[in-house]
Specification:
The structure is a single chain. This protein is about 65% helix and about 10% strand. It is of the alpha/beta class. The chain has two domains: about 300 residues, Up-down Bundle (ABC transporter transmembrane region fold); about 240 residues, Rossmann fold, CATH 3.40.50. The strands form three sheets. It has a six-stranded mixed β-sheet with strand order 6-9-10-3-11-12, sandwiched between helices. The chain has a four-stranded antiparallel β-sheet with strand order 2-1-4-5, with helices on one face. Strand 11 and strand 12 form a beta hairpin. Helix 1 runs antiparallel to helix 2, helix 1 packs parallel to helix 5 and helix 19 crosses helix 20. The longest helix is centred in the N-terminal third of the chain and has 50 residues. About 40% of the residues are buried.
Length: about 575
């Protein structure tokens, strides 16, 4: 947790005032047994009612003052912890967004969700309790020992021995439980993954009648977490009884020795009662301190997981130049590009080259696993190429800032994702400053105007989470419109019309050629009808470039392309 101290910046006043007020409360608590000793030794011994009432009123006043101080301290602690947690989560989320796809996949999406939510909350709770008790509990515990020594050295030694034994017990258990808490959090990652997969894939799950199987898998993951929690809980549960035993042994020794001291006149009855009160205070504070240390053990394990994310440096560094599509330069070009996924056995793309000028269209076609989506990812620089280079406007994408690159190059993927909100708010992801007229124009080009007009509220119609109140084809058209609202210089459509019927697909392609005449367009598809009108068609097979040319040229020179055409078109269409 020490590495996260930077999030306390700007809140140093609370860092000082919270434990200071708790320390003042502890000081007042230590005075109570001394006042009670005087009440017994003076007021009750002399039957002085006025003395007893006066000191009773004093104790009430001390109690009220201590309550006010405690509430004030809690206010500062809560304010500090909430500010700390908010700043940490904001920074953590911002850092995650800077990570590449490779980084996110290595850590795991479910694990990142757990770390941003559950782990960060555990760290925040630990910080809150730390500032509430870190000064108060040790101060009261050792203050009682000092006070006991001031009353009687022998009694103080007995209490000190009990406190040291209890402290050793607590530290020993802390060493044992910290790693177990980390295992519990890793188990929560697995549970989170199961929940996310089943909720997102609930239709597939029901279609294949896998409910019972998934219940069993989820139960197995949850039971593993439960077993770790129970084992850790059993270990932690031993701390309080052992602490009770150590302190009560000290209390027995104190009463055994103190009783004799009272009989011989070395101690007064009030002093003995004060010593017993100090032992009781020490017991209560040790139990609080024990629970604090156990909570800090858990918070420490979670803080390490949070720091692991912060210490994960983005695998891709940002360039320093702004992307610009210059006249006479290719809008986008692949120069002998090869790429291998992390941990992959071979090239996903192998020596791919093409050049696309503004206003031209490139069709990309190939079988499943041929590398079409990989090409789209490299164009967006979701990954860095293994060999060769990808250039936008004549500049290597590794030399460009990612923000400017993605203003120049926009991607629409097959799995269109919409966000909860309205249609207008989703479209403005692409063009934050787009007017309603701009949005309407983008919808017309994307063949989505009818989708909006068919919804109550038009552009302000509600979009449910992940766009579940829209069909697959409607989501794809809205996703295309969202990208067109940005007016990109390079438009990459990665099978973005796969859910559309042939007539709508054809209308979309015609509209893009008409309305995006100045943009370079890459159309990735498995349909020949989608790519055959392109200026160039790139044919991929197993990651290798096996053809590049017009539709007519490839029919004569590329057997793979001709085979694809013959599988989708009639003999007359191929010949024509």
């Amino acid at each position: 947790m020490f590495k996260l101290r930077r999030y306390l910046a700007g809140h140093y006043a609370e860092c000082v005032l919270a434990p200071l007020f708790k320390g003042l409360e502890a000081l007042l608590q230590l005075l109570v047994p001394l006042v009670m000793a005087q009440v017994i030794d003076v007021g009750i011994a002399n039957r002085d009612a006025g003395y007893v009432l006066w000191h009773g009123a004093l104790l009430v006043g001390v109690g009220v003052f201590a309550w006010v101080i405690s509430v004030t301290a809690q206010y500062f602690c809560s304010r500090l912890a909430s500010a700390f947690g908010t700043a940490m989560r904001d920074d953590l989320f911002r850092h995650v967004l800077e990570l590449s796809r490779e980084d996110v996949e290595r850590i795991g999406r479910a694990s990142l969700v757990t770390r941003i939510t559950n782990d960060s909350q555990q760290v925040q709770d630990g910080l809150n309790m730390f500032f509430r008790l870190i000064l108060r509990s040790p101060f009261v515990t050792f203050g009682t020992v000092v006070a006991a020594f001031l009353v009687d050295g022998v009694e103080g030694a007995a209490l000190l021995a009990a406190v040291l034994v209890s402290g050793a017990i607590v530290m020993g258990f802390m060493r044992v439980t910290t790693e177990r808490y980390r295992q519990i959090q890793r188990g929560l990652d697995e549970v989170q993954l199961r929940v996310a997969e089943n909720l997102e894939g609930v239709r597939v799950l029901r279609a294949f009648r896998r409910e019972d199987s998934e219940r069993a898998t989820f139960a197995q993951a949850a039971d593993a977490v439960r077993a770790r929690q129970v084992t850790t809980g059993d270990i932690s549960a031993l701390v309080n009884p052992l602490t009770y035993a150590a302190i009560n042994c000290g209390l027995i020794a104190l009463l055994w020795v103190g009783g004799g001291q009272v009989n011989v006149g070395h101690l007064t009855q009030g002093q003995l009662v004060a010593l017993v009160s100090y032992v009781s205070q020490a017991l209560v504070e040790l139990l609080k301190l024990t629970n604090l240390i156990m909570l800090l053990s858990k918070a420490s394990a979670c803080a390490r997981r949070v720091n692991e994310v912060f210490e994960t440096a983005p695998s891709m560094t940002d360039g320093s130049h702004e992307a610009a599509l210059l006249p006479g330069e290719p809008a986008i070009a692949f120069d002998d590009v090869s790429f291998t996924y992390p941990g992959g056995a071979g090239h996903a793309l192998d020596h791919v080259s093409f050049s696309l000028m503004p206003g031209q269209t490139l069709g990309v076609i190939g079988g499943t696993g041929s590398g079409k989506s990989t090409l789209a990812s490299l164009a967006m620089r979701f990954y860095d190429v293994t060999e060769g280079s990808v250039r936008v406007g004549g500049s290597d994408v590794r030399d460009l800032t990612r923000s400017s690159l993605r203003r120049a190059v926009s991607l629409v993927e097959q799995g269109a994702t919409l966000f909860s909100g309205t249609i207008a708010s989703n479209l403005r992801w692409g063009g934050p400053n787009a007017t309603e007229g701009d949005l309407r124009a983008a919808l017309e080009t994307a063949q989505a105007a009818g989708v909006v007009d068919g919804k109550d509220g038009g552009l302000e119609a509600e979009v449910e989470q992940f766009g579940r109140n829209f069909s697959g084809g409607q989501r794809q058209r809205l996703a295309v419109a969202r990208t067109l609202a940005r007016r990109p210089g390079v438009l990459v459509l990665d099978d973005a019309s796969s859910a559309l019927d042939f007539a709508t697909d054809a209308a979309l392609r015609r509209a893009i050629r008409r309305d995006c005449a100045d943009a370079a367009v890459i159309m990735i598809s498995q349909r020949v009808t989608t790519v055959r009108q392109a200026n160039q068609v790139l044919v991929l097979d197993g990651g290798r470039q096996v053809g590049l040319g017009t539709h007519e040229e490839l029919l004569d020179t590329c057997p793979v392309y001709r085979e694809i055409c013959e599988s989708q078109l009639t003999a007359e269409e191929v010949a024509r």
